[in-house]
């Protein structure tokens, strides 16, 4: 598994934990390619950044199959898919840069999170449908039964808007903070600034200094496994994520598991049926986006998430993919 930052890191860690909880002939561990150890029966790469492409070649040379999770960042039009496929073909065949295409074609199975990504995998990389498996993200069971008590003990019981995610421009935290400031709504921001987002992080910090006057709070070191994160979801009045590009954000699913009102920016990924019942803002302009915030603040609309999106259910589906890819072997 590729340990990344933010949601990808959570996805890798939670998948590994859930697979070991399911058991049933499968054991899983996070690997470090700098350590010498017996080779597992199957590798699973969560996403495929450039530095891992070479590793897929080594796995194939070792005679081991691998499963690859591909993330495309939301729904795309047919025209954009065809353009992406053309660019991929040019890089692989004319520019002789086949690395990513070869890595995808060499996978025993390709996992995608949404049906839209399944279409993208087929069109862009030419993956046969029989090798594509749609397995959604999962949510820790704790979010379904979370209590606000821990948050109240630590930070008081005043209502607030919650936003969770690594601080980066595409996530829209600055626009959210500015809209909350205009409406004098307290914003609790949970997430650290990514290394290449220092300037954006400074702008967010300035906006949150203003929001602090309205009882807002920014915590940068709260990890996903911390019980206080679960309690923050249970304690908030509403959850907001104004990201312009996602696939299936874990933080939104966690808020839905906690039955909280959710306000999203209407980006392409929100066309997924999972998010069809949520509230949206059509703009990130502070005045109009603030109106959408205020409406949901004044009249909260609880949401819900089906239990099939728990990590244990996701792990059971992945187990089937793994056993199909490598027979009855079970060390991943």
In short:
The chain has 12 helices and 10 strands.
What does this protein structure show overall?
The protein is of the alpha/beta class. The protein has two domains: 6-138 and 310-326, Rossmann fold; 141-306, Glycogen Phosphorylase B (Rossmann fold, 3-Layer(aba) Sandwich), CATH 3.40.50.2000. It is built from twelve helices and ten strands. The strands form two sheets. A six-stranded parallel sheet has the order 7-6-5-8-9-10, sandwiched between helices. The protein has a four-stranded parallel sheet with strand order 1-2-3-4, with helices on both faces. α8 (198-211) links the parallel β6 (187-190) and β7. α3 packs parallel to α5 and α7 packs parallel to α8.
Instruction: Name the CATH architecture of the largest domain.
Output: 3-Layer(aba) Sandwich
What is the helix content?
A: 40-55%
Q: What percentage of the residues does DSSP assign to strands (E)?
A: 5-15%
CATH class of the largest domain: Alpha Beta
Average residue-wise pLDDT? 88
What is the CATH superfamily of the largest domain? Glycogen Phosphorylase B
* Count of beta strands: 10
How many helices? The count is 12
User: Could you say which overall geometry the principal axes of the C-alpha atoms support?
Assistant: globular
Radius of gyration: 21 Å
- Quaternary form: single chain
Separation of the first and last Cα atoms: 9 Å
């Amino acid at each position: 598994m590729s340990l990344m930052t933010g949601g990808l890191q959570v996805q890798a860690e939670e998948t590994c934990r859930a697979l070991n909880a399911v058991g049933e002939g499968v054991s899983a561990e996070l690997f470090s390619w700098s350590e010498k150890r017996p080779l597992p029966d199957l590798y699973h790469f969560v996403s495929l950044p450039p530095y891992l492409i070479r590793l897929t070649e080594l796995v194939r040379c070792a005679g081991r199959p691998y499963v690859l999770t591909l993330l495309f960042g939301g729904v795309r039009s047919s025209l954009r898919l065809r353009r992406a496929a053309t660019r991929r073909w040019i890089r692989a065949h004319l520019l002789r840069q086949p690395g990513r295409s070869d890595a995808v074609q060499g996978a025993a199975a390709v996992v995608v999170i949404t049906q839209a990504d399944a279409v993208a995998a087929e069109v862009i990389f030419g993956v046969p449908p029989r090798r594509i498996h749609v397995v959604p993200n999962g949510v820790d069971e704790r979010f379904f039964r979370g209590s606000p008590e821990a948050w109240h003990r630590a930070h008081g019981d005043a209502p607030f808007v919650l936003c969770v995610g690594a601080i980066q421009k595409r996530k829209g935290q600055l626009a959210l903070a500015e809209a909350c400031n205009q409406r004098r709504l307290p914003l609790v921001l949970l997430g650290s600034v990514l290394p290449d987002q220092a300037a954006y992080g400074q702008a967010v910090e300035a906006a949150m200094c203003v929001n602090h006057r309205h009882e807002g709070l920014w915590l940068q070191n709260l990890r996903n496994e911390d019980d206080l994160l679960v309690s923050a979801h249970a304690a908030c009045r509403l959850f907001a994520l104004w990201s312009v590009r996602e696939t299936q954000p874990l933080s939104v699913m966690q808020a839905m598991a906690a039955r909280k009102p959710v306000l999203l920016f209407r980006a392409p990924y929100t066309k997924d049926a999972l998010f069809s019942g949520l509230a949206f803002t059509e703009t990130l302009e502070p005045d109009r986006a603030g109106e959408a915030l205020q409406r949901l603040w004044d009249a909260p609309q609880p949401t819900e998430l089906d239990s099939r999106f728990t990590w244990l259910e996701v792990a059971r589906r992945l187990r089937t993919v793994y056993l199909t890819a490598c027979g009855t072997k079970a060390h991943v």
